[in-house]
Design goal:
flat, 8% strand, two-stranded antiparallel ribbon, single chain, 556 residues, alpha/beta
């Protein structure tokens, strides 16, 4: 309605205006009741089409107060419109900023909620793991408690075998005494395994030794016969081995020895699961034969044990008769182990062949240990009737500089010629650290063959080229003092110093021995001779040198 009034006033001629205009601060135009007559006349003029006449009065007086007021109103309207647009834009900016903040808060809230959800799930899982761990510990303690309870029940419930039991089976009083000692020893070993006190055993650190000790009139050892009354003891020993391995082993390993007790298949079947699972490092069975066919059971027993238990690194047998097929079974298991990451480090077959070891069996044994990846393999072949045929095979084996570090060939039939074969192999072998030739058929000639291999005094060069790693044990006149140090270098220089010092007649060292030595090496030799480690404090090496040179020690 306001804009209609403005329209009428603006089109009416100035002289016909009867309306008093008043411009307010808000830009509104007010009129009085007299305006109606003037506006009617103006309309009439507009209807007649005389537009010039209708518009002429406005053009004739553009600077009138009314025109100025209208212009101000238009300007004010434009200003308000501009202000409105500015407010709209400002409002839009504020709204956008608020929307951005809302979005940011929503994202932050969403991220926080996601973190909370993840944390809740993690706590649930952690709680579940903790609960499972606690349940596992509870179960383990219950199992341990049940195991200990079972052990206590066995300890109290086991019926003591009366002494009369052994006498009724035709054994004498000494046998009954020895059997009582055996059972007492087994009970003590079972208790140590159950209580975790094996390291305090009288037999040595972490050793379980089940041994029957009885000798006849000529001091030959007698083995204990298998008896059904012993079966509960074997069963409890097997259970105790598993218990110790599960609850007390930590990083320790056991050494288990069973000596002079018959072990038929029934006993091996009881022990097999425990030997497969327990933390045993070394196993030694001596004179455990039950019958002529038990060696086959024994070989199969160790085949299965070695395949399953990779803690075992050394296996030894004593006074157990093995057939060639039995040896193949055991050696095949060793080769399988050596192909993996836990090789066998030692094999012992002592007095295991009724008529002596044959060459094919010896080759099988040597071939099996050659596959080991370790550099410290021990092989024990004493009491096997080895002679020149076997010495040639062993010499060829040593010439290959294999991984063998210790060889026990004591109590065989090796002679001086065999000593020469073995000593010649030492000239190229640098890995063998110990060889035992005790109680063979070697004389002084055989001893000198070994001595020259480890201490050749013909010249400094020959001395330097001698074997400086292997100690020879068991000769009637001992020469194990040679190469007594673990250091290859120290062994070599102690010999060179002995030659330089002991061959001199009137000075500290015999400089004539240095004539063939390159000049640039002489200071090195003299400096080495000054090494206190090369001094022969025991004088044993001096005696060896004097013997080789057929010289006697001067009296003070």
């Amino acid at each position: 309605q306001r804009w209609k009034s403005y329209y009428r006033v603006y089109l009416a001629p100035p002289q016909k205006w009867q309306q008093k205009l008043t411009a307010t601060s808000c830009g509104y135009i007010k009129r009085d009741n007299r305006l109606c007559g003037g506006m009617d006349e103006t309309r009439k003029r507009a209807r007649t089409g005389n537009e010039e006449e209708a518009c002429a009065p406005a053009a004739k007086n553009p600077q009138s107060p009314e025109s100025t007021c209208v212009a101000a109103a238009v300007a004010k309207i434009a200003e308000l419109q501009a202000e409105l647009e500015a407010l709209k834009q400002s409002h839009s900016v504020v709204v956008n900023e608020l929307n951005a903040k809302v979005n940011t808060l929503q994202e932050s809230l969403s991220s926080t909620l996601q973190w909370v959800r993840v944390r809740v799930e993690a706590l649930k899982q952690s709680h579940g793991v903790a609960v499972n761990e606690l349940n596992g510990k509870v179960d383990a303690l219950q199992t341990k408690n049940e195991s200990l309870t079972s052990a206590l029940q066995w300890a109290y419930a086991v019926e003591e075998i009366p002494r009369q039991h052994w006498l009724e089976r035709g054994h004498d009083e000494d046998y009954a005494d020895a059997m009582e000692n055996l059972l007492s020893s087994m009970e003590e070993s079972i208790k140590d395994l159950r209580m975790g006190t094996v390291s305090d055993s009288e037999f040595g650190e972490n050793m379980i030794k089940i041994e029957f000790i009885l000798q006849d009139e000529v001091e030959n050892y007698i083995h204990a016969d298998q008896d059904e009354t012993l079966m509960p003891y074997w069963k409890e020993l097997a259970a105790a081995l598993r218990h110790w391995s599960e609850y007390h082993a930590d990083d320790k390993r056991l050494e288990v020895e069973i000596v002079y007790i018959e072990m038929p298949k029934a006993v091996l079947d009881i022990l097999r699961p425990a030997f497969k699972q327990s933390r045993i490092e070394r196993v030694y069975f001596e004179n455990c034969r039950h019958s002529n066919h038990s060696s086959g059971y024994m070989a199969d027993f160790f085949k299965q044990v070695l395949q399953s238990n990779h803690f075992i690194t050394r296996v030894s047998f004593g006074i157990l008769e093995f057939a060639q097929e039995d040896v193949k079974t055991v050696c095949g298991a060793i080769e399988s182990r050596n192909a993996g990451s836990q090789p066998i480090e030692g094999l012992g077959m002592v007095n295991c062949f009724e008529n002596g070891i044959d060459t094919q069996t010896l080759k099988t044994i040597l071939a099996s240990i050659t596959t080991s990846r370790t550099e410290n393999v021990v092989l024990k072949l004493s009491h096997n009737g080895m002679s020149s045929r076997e010495a040639a095979i062993i010499g060829e084996f040593l010439n290959s500089n294999s991984c063998l570090s210790e060889l026990d060939s004591a109590y065989n039939q090796l002679n001086d010629a065999d000593a020469a074969v073995l000593s010649n192999a030492l000239s190229v072998n640098t890995r063998l650290e110990k060889i035992s030739v005790k109680n063979n058929r070697m004389t002084e000639n055989g001893r000198l063959a070994f001595l020259r291999a480890v201490f050749d005094i013909s010249s400094l060069s020959s001395c330097a080229a001698s074997n400086h790693t292997c100690r020879v044990h068991g000769l009637e006149r001992d020469i194990s003092v040679v190469n007594r140090y673990e250091s290859f270098s120290l062994n070599k220089w102690s010999k060179i110093f002995s030659m330089l010092a002991l061959s001199s007649e009137d000075s500290f060292i015999n400089t004539s021995l240095l004539r063939g030595v390159p000049a640039q090496l002489v200071p090195l030799i003299l400096d080495r001779c000054n090494d206190v480690g090369c001094i022969d404090n025991t004088q044993a090496l001096t005696d060896i040198y004097l013997e080789l040179t057929s010289t006697t020690r001067c009296q003070k």
